[in-house]
């Protein structure tokens, strides 16, 4: 009996990993990429920008002058529409049937960062501490099923909550004006919950409820390089190792509760960026960034047959200083989903800096959209067409 119970709980856990909610949010989370408003506008970490901070690249801790503090808050809006093409008896398309429309908004703390650097003889040393959102699990899904008289007979409801945060400490050294190296250590913790309910209108039938809650904890190492080829050309490299997260999982099937152990190993990340400042009456900064996240290396002992694909992210970010000395930021980015290389999210962002003495306020907004079908995402023949729209607003306060 015990083996049967544990098997059923494990199956429920695997099912919750691929619930029918927003792509990625209900499985292993949507990765939070940008650290602050400057990165949000360009869809990048900004690993080559000296003002980005050690959370983007640990080597940047050596470039604090001499103290840097930053706090970022994010508001996220997600909308998902599901349609199925309808055919008549002659196999002619008669239009689209909307199966569900899901929309939600979340506001949360994105990051906190503190850096300090000072010269020690010919060498400049830096240290940093901070906290940042790493993976987001928040989403809502509801699908209503009606009979021929359009009366509601059943509702499938899925609710996901949670976020994994990383607490990071970094040390950096700048032995020469044109090079800096750094290393850091991140402790990842967070909780993910997924509640699945099948609600039946028939009073003689019982509703079905399944709930899973995973408490994650693990560690990761970070390494970074920063360099200046000339006063106008800079580069940066940031490497994150994989993170092995152990989890205690609470599973509830109807009126029965279980506890399971779970181990999920999240992939590392490799980012490379180049920043160029061309000579101009109104200074501009152009940053090109590429990141590779090998999601195919993710492993889950409760879902051993998992097959994911690597994510490649490309971004172009521009900061242009206007005539009134206000920096304006804009950029574009593209990244494929870790479920399929054929599903890509293109985003565009816009932002501005509003300096108030030593306190600098940065505001940025980005919007992206992608369309695909359910079979394409999960390797089935499901013809449901899905359109997702994502929008984010980030407010960052910086003191330097």
Would you write up a description of this structure?
The protein is mainly beta. The protein has a single domain, classed as Outer membrane protein transport protein (OMPP1/FadL/TodX) (Porin), CATH 2.40.160.60. The protein is 7% helix and 64% strand. A 14-stranded antiparallel beta barrel has the order 2-3-4-6-7-8-9-12-13-15-16-17-18-19. Strand 5 and strand 6 form a beta hairpin. The radius of gyration is 23 Å and the shape is globular. The N terminus is likely disordered.
Short description:
The protein has 400 residues and is mainly beta.
Topology summary:
Layout: H1 2-17, E1 30-31, H2 37-42, E2 67-87, E3 93-120, E4 123-136, E5 139-146, E6 152-176, E7 179-200, E8 208-228, E9 233-240, E10 243-253, E11 256-266, E12 269-276, E13 284-293, E14 299-300, E15 311-321, E16 327-336, E17 344-356, E18 359-373, H3 374-378, E19 385-399
Antiparallel strand pairs: 1-4, 2-3, 2-19, 3-4, 4-6, 5-6, 6-7, 7-8, 8-9, 8-10, 9-12, 10-11, 11-14, 12-13, 13-15, 15-16, 16-17, 17-18, 18-19
